[in-house]
Amino acid sequence: MENTETGLMTLDELCETLMIGRSTAYQLMKSGELGAFRIGRIWKIPKAGVIDYLQERRQGQFAQA
């Protein structure tokens, strides 16, 4: 269930949104490419951070073309 009031996503929501696997999601978070934090055992990912990540990837793609 997406947490629209706080602007946070769970790990599963992130994977579904970006169409990536859990391992890739963990790598993005661990490397710092995608900001995330834990509350207890649950990962929370700010939607604004996901948007920023996608925009950076998009700009990098156009820079290489």
What does this molecule look like?
Helix content is 55%, strand content 15%. The chain is of the alpha+beta class. The chain has a 3-stranded antiparallel sheet. The chain starts with 7 loop residues before the first strand and ends with a helix. The protein has helices at residues 11-18, 22-31, 47-64; strands spanning 8-9, 37-39, 42-46. β2 and β3 (42-46) form a beta hairpin. The protein has one domain (8-64). It contains 3 helices and 3 strands, in the order βααββα.
Fraction of residues in β-strands: 15-25%
Mean pLDDT rating: 88
Q: Total strand count, please?
A: 3
Give the strand order, joined by hyphens, for the main sheet: 1-3-2
Biggest sheet statistics: 3 strands, antiparallel
Query: How many domains, in number, for the residues?
Result: 1
Helix-and-strand structural type:
alpha+beta
Helix share, percent: 55-70%
Order of helices and strands: EHHEEH
What is the fold's blueprint, element by element?
Blueprint: E1 8-9, H1 11-18, H2 22-31, E2 37-39, E3 42-46, H3 47-64
Antiparallel strand pairs: 1-3, 2-3
